[in-house]
Amino acid sequence: MRHSLPLCFAAMLAACAAPATIGERPEVTTGDLDRITAVLKRDFHERGQAKMDRIELDAVQRLCNLHSDNPPEALAKPLEQAQFKAIPFPEGNLIGDWKRGERVAQSGRGSMWSDKPGVQDGGSCYNCHQLSPREPAHGTLGPSLAGFGKLRGTSAEMQKYAYGRIYNSKAYNVCSQMPRLGHAGTLNEQQIKDLVGLLLDPASPVNQ
Amino acid sequence: MTFKLGLVLALAAAPALAQQSPYAEYQRMALENAPVELFELGGEELWKKRQGPKNASLERCDLGQGPGVLKGAYAGLPRHFADTDRVMDLEARLLHCMTTLQGRSRQEATKRVFGNADRPSEMEYLSAYVARQSNGMKIAPGRTHPKEQEAYDLGRKLFFHRAGAWDFSCASCHGEEGKRIRMSDLPVLSNPQFARPLMATWPAYRVSTSSFVTLQWRMNDCYRQMRMPEPTFGSDTTIALIAYMMATAAGEPYRGPAIKR
Amino acid sequence: MAAGPMRMRATQGAGFTDVRVLMTHPMETGQRKDADGKIVPLHFIQNVTVKLNGKVVVEAETSQAVSRNPVFSFRIKGGAKGDKIEVSWLDNKGESTSIESAVA
Q1: Reported pTM
Q2: What is the pLDDT of residue B7?
Q3: Which residue from A12, A36, A69 is facing B144, i.e. has the nearest CB?
Q4: Does any CB of chain B come closer than 8 Å to the CB of residue C99?
């Protein structure tokens, strides 16, 4: 494009070398990841329960960073399977108390440096999802979960799916934006069961 | 010929649209009687106040336009500074002047960088005052010095870098158009269309907390909510992200200090 | 924290004076709980008085419904450059403060 040339010279070469698409995610190499991690190690410090080990990338974060959240099947599948194998599914009925589940879903606290260490408060579910249709103050980062149980039923498989998805969403979609609430220690077994209750129990406001 | 004309019209319409959007109108109405001015006046007092072992004011502080020159300073940040050989944003530069001109220790000057409703911090007052002096001017952070380009590049990579207990990057929330967290709209900050009205309205008075918030505070609070450890005030990480976002918003007339709910 | 910086701007128009006052006050509703769950006591500006050259021109009774750090802006009939505007407030704890400025 002829008119872009004078702009290029004025804006210097580096700007021209940048990808043409505005907002496009940059290509990232393993070298980049090491450099970024080194910068973060230098520029961050631990506070409260947020320790510096949080800067280290695990296999999931590494893969997703290297492939702009779109890794090839051949690399994604084995990692999803490995994440799935590590989910400690409890035995028996996984449908807990939906009333407690609603409180867990509403709470935006947990795992931050401003939170009391060891206190598992909530899952921040409403930050991203619609759950009970009666709650208008919900985010739209994740899909709506209204009617979740009504649509899917309460079978053992569905209970396991809901439990697993909350414990570790990356076991189902390795670069999912949803936090691994069980894996990260944000929620305990009972809280996740209570959330399963919120999702599946026919009496839950989610299914009215 | 028609294509060229269309392009010119489209370019001309874009900033006008930004001014007429419901968000811009809300900003204009809310700003009419905002307590923002209180912070600007407090900032002016602090700028002129003699402090520290050197008993000096900040009036000789160089924010990029020359010692003591405030007009256009905020709109030109972040930028590279020869005396520190670093790319610095407003708050890092204010801290630099507090330690060099006033002789204060970094520890003392950063003891309370983020205030609250009852007691705003010096940085908050000063940021409001300095930002006001760039009102109406085009956002134009440094883009030519190699370190400025490095900062931009680092900021861009950091924006998409997933890490922390919840595997979040900035883009996890600010990566897709039309999304919100609870009831807060999430602008896609890597896109000029959305970065421009946002960066034109920081720092700002936040009604819900009755406090004045700055970009260093925002970087800090984002990382807290991203379940990461804490970034050091005025660190390269925070400055790189601010540089990236200001560069993405370049060209927008600066409208701050503003007001937010 | 009761008394805090108060700022005022009084600018002359054609036959009127526009006054804008920024006040610092927590304006506690008496309903808010602090981090320990205790109610933060009621603490708010109850009266605002405005004088033009010593003569009372505005007397306002305000309630705890007004937010923290209130901004009052009003238009007074008359007023000329150099005239003295005084704004004072009194809160429910009996604390008061005032500010004086000349019309610009």
Answers
A1: 0.87
A2: 41
A3: A12
A4: no
